[in-house]
Amino acid sequence: MSRADLSRALGLTRVTVSDLVLDLIERGHVVELGHSDKIRPGKPGMLIDLNRRGLQIVGMDLAETSVMRAAVLDLDGNIVSRLERSFTEESGEALIGQVLQLARDAMALSTAPLLGIGVGTPGIVSPEGIVVEASNLGWKNVNLRDLLQDHTGMPVLVSNDAAAAAHAEYTFGDGGDNMILVKIGRGVGSGIIVGGERVRGAHSGAGEIGHVTVGTDGGALCKCGKTGCLETWMSVPSLEKNLREAAGSSDPEASARAMLQAAGDRLAVALAPVVGALDLSEVVLSGPAQLLDGVLLDAARRTLLSRLLRQEPAPVSVRLAADAHDIVLRGASALVLGNQLGVA
């Protein structure tokens, strides 16, 4: 927009806006794009915009099943460069050292001043960036934000990976103001947006549906110690394990279909009370399309709608996220963008 447009939008004088814009240009945060092509009396206004490539952000994704990933992103969430490291067999404190080194290596790939580092991690994360518990990583009360800030000297934002993914879908994707995004990877979690704001909950655990028991008919033993948790049906390792077992049956195709349908049904059982209580309009699944698309997605949609108050048209849509592979990296960058520049 032009300086005049900005003046009208903010209710500030043109002189004040011009001074502020000049300061932002000198600091590298704003650029001039050329004259507006709008036809109006007088001299065409000079369009200004955020310098979307003048600052960069490091995003980190610790939620994949076999690797931890990092990327340098511009302010539009586009990935400039990326790297990944295989998880070792270590967990707990030994794993923290790998995360710190990954952050340093990612910073070295930046080609513009860095705004900060955003991290999406499994588990419950407090507003202060403390990983209260991440059983899949062997972490309990790990102050990941302060550890990374001390190690890198950069501002750091740490979020649950599913919440970060929800931020990505809302900021850079097609997500609406009332949605739940279910992130399916090493574990199962979700991020919830209500009225355009992320829901945290009383203990920062809103959306932690992975260890909700789905059904009363038993199921597999979960690593948390309970039986029949959603993760035992829907996590990527569980889905892949069950598909391998189906491949060894007398009718592999029918067995695989039945397994995927059962997983979709169980997911819907967990989601229906959440969707109904919060009156959400969208359910977005983020994970490997080869596992989620087709039978599982159809079963989840059918069972969810059957458990909600019948309305025409259907009160909620169920779909896959468009960019599941990079969604946590982009969501982590959106957290930094909002925290450091107030852009959401």
TrEMBL record:
Which superkingdom?
Answer: Bacteria
Please state every residue range assigned to the domain named HTH crp-type.
1-28
Cite the Pfam families for this sequence: Crp, ROK
**SUPFAM superfamilies listed in its UniProt record:** Actin-like ATPase domain, Winged helix' DNA-binding domain
| Protein family per UniProt | Belongs to the ROK (NagC/XylR) family.
Q: What protein is this chain from?
A: ROK family transcriptional regulator
What species is given as this protein's source? Answer: Arthrobacter citreus
